[in-house]
Amino acid sequence: NADQAMYLSKTNGRNQLTFFEHSMHAKAMERLKMIGELREALPRNEISLYFQPIVDLYTGKITKAEALVRWCHPREGIIFPGNFISLAEETGIIHELGDWVFRNALACVKRWKQEFGIDIQVSINKSPKQFLKKGHTEEWAELLRNSGVAGNNIVVEITESVLISNTAVVSENLRQLHQLGMEISIDDFGTGYSSMGYLKRLDANFLKIDQSFVKNMMTLPTDAVIVETIILMGHKLGLKIIAEGVETEQQRKWLESNHCDYLQGYLFSAALEVDDFERLLKADAWP
Ligand code: C2E
Ligand code: MG
Ligand code: MG
Ligand code: MG
C-alpha cells in the first residue's frame, strides 16, 4: 500500500508537472505572439491616439488634453495601455511607440491651431525607459523644431518611478526638455516612491493627484487630507494641480473649494478618438 501511494503521488506529481509545463509553455507562446503583433501594430496602423480633455476648474474650459494610446487589435478589439505598455517597455518597442506618440501629438496641436485657431497644451506620457536612451532628447528637439510647434504646447508626464531609475540622466533630460520650452507634469502623484526632495530638484510645472485619492476623498477623511495637503504644498512650490479621475459633481465642488486648478475625468469626458475630441474642442471653444 505504501508502494501504491508512492506510485500515485509520483504519477500525480508528474501529471502536475506536465500540466504546469504546458501552461507555462502556452503563456510563453502567447507572449511571443503578442510581441510579434505589437511590433507590427504601428506599421499596420493599429495604434491610435485618444485625447482626454483637461479643464480649467474655474472657467470650465478645455485648456489641455492628455494623449492616451489605444491598440485596435484585429481580433481582440481595443486593447488598453495597461495591457501592453509594460510589454512595449520590456521589448524596447516603447521607443518607437513613444516617438510616434510625440510626432502625432505635435501634428494634432499644429492642426488644431491652424484649422480651428484653438491653442491647447497636450500632455504625453513618457516611460522611464525612454529617458535612458542615448541621444533621445536631441531627437525630440529635432522633431519639435521640424514641427513648428512651440515647446510649451507639450507637457511631458512622468511618474515618480522615473526618479529612482537614474537621477543624473533623468534630471539632465528634464532640464533639456525645459530648455525646449516643454513643461513637466508629475503623474499619479502620491502613489510611488514619493519623496519631497525630488520635487525641489525636478522643477516640474504640474502635479497630477492620483485618481485613487480623488476616488476616495469624499468618503475617507485621510484621503481628503492627502488631497488637500498635496494642493497646498504644490501651490507653495509654485506648481499647478491637476486632479485625475474626477467622476462626480460633488468631487468637482470639493476640489473647487480646495483651490485645485484643473480637472480630468469622466465627469467631463473620457478619452476620445480624435474626431470626437475635435468636435468637443470646437463646441467648447465656440459655444
Ligand atoms: P495615466 O497617465 O495616469 O492616465 C490616466 C488614466 O486614467 C487613463 O487610462 C484614463 O483613461 C483614465 N481615466 C481618466 N479619467 C478617469 C475617470 O474619471 N475614472 C477612471 N476610472 N479612469 C479615468 P488609460 O488610457 O487606460 O491609460 C492607463 C495608463 O497607461 C496611463 O495612466 C499611462 O500611465 C499609460 N499610458 C497611456 N498612454 C501611454 C503612452 O503613450 N505612453 C506611455 N509610456 N504610457 C501610456
Ligand atoms: Mg498620464
Ligand atoms: Mg495618472
Ligand atoms: Mg495612472
Automatic annotation (TrEMBL):
Origin superkingdom: Bacteria
UniProt signal peptide: none
Domain EAL: 31-285
Name of the protein in question: EAL domain-containing protein
